[in-house]
């Protein structure tokens, strides 16, 4: 029974009021706002007078959200009681009551004759937020909902659509490295010969020839997939979305690698699921000890998501032994694994690494997601999921999500796979990527400030780079991002890959471009800017592990 008549409740303060259905003015959450008045702006519409939640608690909740969403460091001064009362059109005693309420719960502290300040963060696990369902499962004790993207992060993501001259931001090879000519011929021919591919209604879970080819490809690296469990999707992103919804509900806790692919984090937010971050190593991948410890502590993990092969952004590939151990651990706890293997075909090693799914001997506990956006054609938006024991649910979700995926491009990819064209293309693409990776890495090491760390990925498309401290403070890639963008250079800033300011001193660079003198000049310029990059004020770089 929720404490307050709010649609989402938490044990301490109401998260969401039934009256307006919001958690307050989103502008409150503008991260990076250094001025106090930006952090605590005037609420435009005040509070609903007939809300049964006392006014002081509504204010307390909004202040707490503002503190958390902007990741305000310990010691940040709050507005005075009088200012709060004026801003929020309430009495001084109500504002004071809100502050005292936060103080008694350890969120803020009073300093004699100075006012109220953000207190040292309460230990994780002490404070809980949660939907009714999550609360019932104890989820709120262990995990957080992903915060909404702040305005700056939205800007950062929008760069994918921006006219940037040097694209180090995406995880994609340049157009000339994909078999575009081959596809244009194939698509024209197939549309002409098989008119139903364009003129008929699309039914089913994917073009049978493509599903068969996906299963055949997987056999080459000893991963057994049944074509009937494969659902073809609109990109790997749709596969991930279906997988999450097949195994979990809003409020459930999903364990993900940290850092991880930022769209996954935002997807979890959109699905109102909670994240529990598990550290990921640039060589060995997801930290199995940390995952085991989370289970031992009783974290109610509903599913785990891993990008095991050529992880984005770290480029790691765990050993087979680790993959086997991951399967065993999850089986022991009866928790499904969602594996994103979109980069598996782009690993540089002699043999293509096996997905974790290959070690799940017919148990069906791994939902394997893949796709061709990285390896064959970003524009065709073709992905797939092999749902294991969740297949029927995945199929039902696909039907009500997008019904089906256009078949013309599926037929084209199926043909390329069947005729060996894909294997040939992959060999060329990987050879090019290997050279580009080396050139980009060497350039970063020579042009970026001394002490910069760069991953040496086992394949894939991206390099993860960590800037050294400046005067004992982590440099922020947020400001660097703005400066670089002004000069037409795009990269993916690190904070997108974590939560609450984690990885703010990191950046992800795309190695998918052919190495040219123009590209080298851009990396040199980025290095110059990085040398001068300063810590972002008010943005705490913190480890978000519990
Ligand atoms: C790990 C990972 N999964 C999925 C995707 C998206 O795949 P698609 O474009 O096929 O939806 C990306 C794109 O960067 C990615 O890095």
Automatic annotation (TrEMBL):
Keywords from the UniProt entry: Aminotransferase, DNA-binding, Pyridoxal phosphate, Transcription, Transcription regulation, Transferase
Coiled-coil ranges per UniProt: none
Annotated HTH gntR-type domain residues: 53-121
Pfam families in alphabetical order: Aminotran_1_2, GntR
Keyword Transport tagged: no
InterPro entries: Aminotransferase_I/II_large, HTH_trans_reg/aminotransferase, PyrdxlP-dep_Trfase, PyrdxlP-dep_Trfase_major, PyrdxlP-dep_Trfase_small, Tscrpt_reg_HTH_GntR, WH-like_DNA-bd_sf, WH_DNA-bd_sf
MF (Gene Ontology): DNA binding; DNA-binding transcription factor activity; pyridoxal phosphate binding; transaminase activity
PANTHER family the record matches: HTH-TYPE TRANSCRIPTIONAL REGULATORY PROTEIN GABR, TRANSCRIPTIONAL REGULATORY PROTEIN
Family: In the C-terminal section; belongs to the class-I pyridoxal-phosphate-dependent aminotransferase family.
Protein name: PLP-dependent aminotransferase family protein
Species per Swiss-Prot/TrEMBL record: Trinickia dabaoshanensis
């Amino acid at each position: 029974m929720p404490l307050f008549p709010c649609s989402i409740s938490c044990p301490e303060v109401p998260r969401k009021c039934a009256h307006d259905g919001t958690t307050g003015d989103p502008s409150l959450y503008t991260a990076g706002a250094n001025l106090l008045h930006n952090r605590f702006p005037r609420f435009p519409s005040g509070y609903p007078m007939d809300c049964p939640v006392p006014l002081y608690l509504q204010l307390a909740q909004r202040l707490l959200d503002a503190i958390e969403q902007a990741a305000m460091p310990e010691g940040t001064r709050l507005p005075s009681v009088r200012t709060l009362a004026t801003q929020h059109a309430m009495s001084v005693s109500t504002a004071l009551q809100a502050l005292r309420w936060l103080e008694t719960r350890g969120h803020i502290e009073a300093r004699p004759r100075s006012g109220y300040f953000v207190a040292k963060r309460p230990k994780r696990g002490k404070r809980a937020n949660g939907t009714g369902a999550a609360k019932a499962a104890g989820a709120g004790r262990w995990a957080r909902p992903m915060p909404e993207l702040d305005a700056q992060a939205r800007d950062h993501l929008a760069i994918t659509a921006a006219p940037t001259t040097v694209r180090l931001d995406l995880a994609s090879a340049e157009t000339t490295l994909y078999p575009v000519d081959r596809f244009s011929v194939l698509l024209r021919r197939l549309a002409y010969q098989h008119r139903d591919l364009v003129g008929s209604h699309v039914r089913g879970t994917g073009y049978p020839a493509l599903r068969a080819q996906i299963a055949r490809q997987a056999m080459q690296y000893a991963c057994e997939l049944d074509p009937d469990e494969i659902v073809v999707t609109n990109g790997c992103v749709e596969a991930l979305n279906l997988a999450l919804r097949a195994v979990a509900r809003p409020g459930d806790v999903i364990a993900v690698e940290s850092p991880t692919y930022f769209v996954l984090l935002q997807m979890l937010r959109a699905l109102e699921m909670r994240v529990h971050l598990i550290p990921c190593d640039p060589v060995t991948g997801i930290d199995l000890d940390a995952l085991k410890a989370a289970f031992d502590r009783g974290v109610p993990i509903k599913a785990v998501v891993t990008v095991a092969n050529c992880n984005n952004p770290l480029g790691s590939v765990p050993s087979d032994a680790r993959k086997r151990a991951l399967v065993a651990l999850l089986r022991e706890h009866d928790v499904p694994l969602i594996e994103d293997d979109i980069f598996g075909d782009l690993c540089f090693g002699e043999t293509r690494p096996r997905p974790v799914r290959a070690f799940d001997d017919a148990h069906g506990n791994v939902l394997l997601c893949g796709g061709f956006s990285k390896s064959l054609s970003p524009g065709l938006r073709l992905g797939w999921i092999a749902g294991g024991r969740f297949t029927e649910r995945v199929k039902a979700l696909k039907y009500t999500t997008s019904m089906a995926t256009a078949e013309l491009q599926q037929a084209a990819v199926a043909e390329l796979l069947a005729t060996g064209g894909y294997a040939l293309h992959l060999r060329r693409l990987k050879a090019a990527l290997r050279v580009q990776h080396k050139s980009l890495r060497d350039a970063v090491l020579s042009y970026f400030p001394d002490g910069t760390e760069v991953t040496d990925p086992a394949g894939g498309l991206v390099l993860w780079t960590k800037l050294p401290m400046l005067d004992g403070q982590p440099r922020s890639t947020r400001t660097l991002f703005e400066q670089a963008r002004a000069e037409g250079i795009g990269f993916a800033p690190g904070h997108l890959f974590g939560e609450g300011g984690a990885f703010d001193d990191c950046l992800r660079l795309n190695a998918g471009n052919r190495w040219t003198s123009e590209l080298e000049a851009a990396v040199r310029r980025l290095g110059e800017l990085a040398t001068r990059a300063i810590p972002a004020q008010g943005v705490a770089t913190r480890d978000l592990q519990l």
